[in-house]
């Protein structure tokens, strides 16, 4: 599966700072110190509807991580999946009378368009669950043969008790896990499971649903968590630098994925750092497909809103915060974009070297994009005085905003 075209990242003078970021697993801030190639895996969409602002906010956060790393002169190895077969997708296909594969292809294409418009840097590997199945099946077989998985009916479940480190990502107690498991795709009440939290690795074929050859597992399709594990292990290996996604993925998805990988390899940790973005709400509730309270990126673009303004609206909120999308948020972003473009359109201006360093420091401090935006606001306001004579200032400010914030002026 192909990703989307990369926008050019302008070169900046000097070098950026190492990123200090909140790690869910330790509930504290850590300094990321990757090698020459920083490795990141971000969980992708289940393509049964268009990209909404909650998606965009999450991918914007991890785009900033990449930009900070690139500014330190590192390379970035970024991998993202597409869950192009799963219950929500199949249910939507039945409800709308559309072939599930065609629905997944259509919505993935729209996602690519939205990511391109928002100038999100693409992954080097963009892998669908379906194309990953040949690599998933042997992993499930290995877990089963090692006693870390078991059959129930014709389905195969992972035993969370097989990983001594289980629970170390989300740090939740058993009751909280059970509640979230039921809410987020698990089946804790299924009779016969060794532990109510045990997640499915391989779902045996159901009538009327797609299935694939699972060798000794029989016909079926993979569970949600093992999909990402197979892709990440194949392309990044154990101990990669950052596993990212929305805060609703900490449990069960990232917790279960870590245990799958650790049981498979005998190594710990699956990812060195777990980073989670907050939820975007609308009318007092989390924006989600299941609730139907969505503001779509594509619709907003079709209504004539500059994608750069959408990105500024996302950047105005700290990535870990839960916040509300409103017309006011977007209006303020549109006005900010106009002010910034006016400021860099001058033939000269106030020196921008200090501005560059302010943006770098803000982003290195747990991706504090609101602080970075405030720094550009101050510089743009000072430009209105017309007292600056530095001919290179507008260009440097523009390149800094583009390279570090992903906003083209």
Can you describe this structure in just a few lines?
With 409 residues, the chain is of the alpha/beta class.
How much strand content do the residues show?
Answer: 15-25%
SSE string, helices as H and strands as E: EEEHEHHEHEEHEEHEHEEEHHEHHHH
Please tally the helical runs, counting DSSP H or I stretches of 4 or more residues: 13
Which homologous superfamily in CATH is the superfamily of the largest domain?
HUPs
CATH architecture classification name of the largest domain: 3-Layer(aba) Sandwich
* Rounded mean pLDDT score: 96
Strand order of the largest sheet: 5-4-3-10-11
Contiguous low-pLDDT stretches (5 residues minimum) are none
CATH class annotation of the largest domain: Alpha Beta
Shape from CA axes? elongated
CATH topology call of the largest domain: Rossmann fold
Which radius of gyration do the C-alpha atoms yield? 22 Å
Helix percentage: 40-55%
Largest sheet, in brief, is:
5 strands, parallel
Structural class: alpha/beta
- Structurally, the number of domains stands at 2
Please report the distance between the alpha carbons of the first and last residues.
31 Å
State the total count of DSSP E strands.
14
